[in-house]
Recover the amino acids of this structure.
């Protein structure tokens, strides 16, 4: 197809230059039929249509020469077209220049008739150029013949004579071609122009080569930069050797034994050296044994490596089940967040809310121990116990730590004259399940202890609810203190 376009485009350009506009239009249309986006053919066709719209029905001037044969090279084609154009300009300029010269001669003749002493006027020398035209198709629509046209003409020296001298150019052999779709307009057989020999010819104007207008390209539309996928956390395989309590296990990794503390949760104590077995502690340890006992688990690290006791801090996986979150969902553990290990904090809080709404485990009703059977009265009654003077003295309910407010606390004070053992006592934060059970701890007279929401301060007795979210309502709440018998000893509201 490209070879065919290269053959047809020169034919269209020659037809446009030499005046065969109908044939030029046919060749340009053939090119566009092969390549609708060809810029040269589009420009040539537009130029031909513009010329034809202006010509109306006027035939071409007799000074235009047409050719119909292909050439060996583009250089020979351009040189021949330039020669044709110079001859054409010669005829046009001769017609325009002849009128003023004729008027000048008439004026000179009138002047000689009027003048009493006429002077001899030299007779100008004239030359007659006769051009021959042929009405033949411009170029073949089929494959061109390899023959090369030959052009012969006779040059005649101009002499000062009144008889015209004819110079007739003749074209060489032509190639038989099919008839064009529309025959060109008829031209006169000959045309004779008489030009004065002293009229200078205008310099030949070399036509500028046609340049293709660059076609604007579409600006690429920027696309969104793809977001790289979040890398999957690495999990270390470990063999569970034993379950220590609800949130601690012992595992073997590469032949070495490690203790693993579950990240983000806290279960009731069962083996704390300073605390008694807390409510739901045994149940949490049993559920942990059921989930991981004797199994191979995956250990996922967050930010911290170990806690202050040297235990590995990890999320524990059994297949696709995260044991940390499952214990919270079932109500055996509550959220206990210690930054910077907060990767699954939102998941844990969601699981805890689900357990609260379903009233599971820790969020169910707290069992109230039955009071002991009162002893038979004796003659001498002992003095009332000093426990009645242990009260809730203050509640700091609006914590500084954002969102979780882990620094909230309730403070109890011993106003009695003697020490009091708090073992089995319970501090309730106003809602079922929001209880803190006191361990075996003796509070001295005048001493105050704080129970924090989720912080550990040994200087204030080291008590904590271990809650991952705020316990005390900033808009108003009440705290209740119960002794080991379940009797409420103190109430503090704000």
């Amino acid at each position: 197809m490209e070879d065919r376009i290269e053959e047809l485009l020169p034919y269209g350009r020659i037809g446009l230059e030499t005046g065969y506009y109908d044939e030029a239009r046919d060749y340009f249309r053939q090119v566009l039929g092969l390549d609708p986006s060809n810029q040269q053919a589009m420009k040539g066709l537009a130029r031909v249509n513009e010329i034809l719209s202006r010509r109306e029905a006027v035939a071409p001037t007799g000074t235009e020469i047409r050719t119909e044969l292909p050439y060996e090279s583009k250089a020979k084609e351009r040189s021949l077209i330039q020669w044709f154009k110079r001859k054409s300009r010669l005829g046009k300029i001769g017609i325009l220049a002849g009128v003023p010269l004729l008027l000048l001669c008439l004026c000179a003749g009138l002047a000689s008739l009027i003048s009493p002493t006429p002077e001899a006027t030299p007779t100008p020398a004239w030359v007659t150029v006769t051009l021959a035209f042929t009405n033949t198709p411009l170029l073949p629509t089929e494959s061109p013949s390899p023959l090369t046209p030959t052009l012969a003409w006779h040059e005649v020296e101009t002499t000062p004579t009144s008889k015209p001298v004819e110079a007739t150019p003749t074209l060489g052999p032509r190639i038989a071609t099919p008839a064009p779709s529309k025959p060109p307009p008829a031209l006169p057989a000959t045309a004779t122009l008489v030009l004065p020999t002293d009229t200078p010819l205008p310099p030949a104007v070399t036509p500028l080569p046609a340049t293709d207008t660059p076609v604007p390209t579409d600006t690429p539309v920027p696309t969104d930069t793809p977001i790289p996928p979040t890398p999957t956390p690495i999990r270390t395989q470990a063999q569970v050797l034993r379950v220590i309590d609800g949130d601690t296990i012992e595992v073997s990794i590469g032949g070495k034994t490690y203790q693993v503390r579950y990240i983000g949760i806290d279960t009731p104590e069962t083996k704390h050296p300073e605390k008694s077995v807390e409510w739901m502690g045994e149940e949490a340890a049993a559920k942990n044994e059921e989930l991981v006992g004797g199994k191979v688990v995956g250990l996922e690290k967050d930010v911290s490596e170990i806690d202050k006791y040297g235990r590995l801090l990890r999320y524990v996986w059994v297949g696709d089940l995260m044991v940390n979150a499952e214990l919270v969902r079932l109500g055996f553990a509550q959220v206990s967040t210690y930054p910077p290990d907060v990767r699954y904090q939102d998941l844990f809080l969601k699981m805890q809310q689900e357990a609260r709404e379903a009233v599971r485990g820790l969020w169910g009703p707290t069992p109230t121990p039955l009071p002991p059977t009162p002893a038979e009265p004796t003659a001498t009654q002992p003095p009332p116990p000093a426990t009645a003077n242990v009260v809730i003295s203050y509640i700091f309910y609006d914590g500084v730590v954002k969102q979780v407010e882990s620094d909230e606390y309730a403070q109890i004070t011993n106003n009695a004259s003697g020490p009091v053992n708090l073992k089995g006592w319970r501090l309730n934060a106003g809602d079922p399940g929001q209880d803190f059970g006191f361990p075996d701890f003796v509070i001295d007279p005048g001493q105050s202890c704080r129970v924090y929401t989720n912080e550990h301060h040994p200087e204030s007795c080291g008590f904590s609810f271990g809650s991952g979210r705020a316990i005390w309502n900033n808009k108003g709440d009440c705290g209740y203190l119960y002794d080991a018998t379940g009797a409420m000893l103190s109430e503090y509201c704000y």
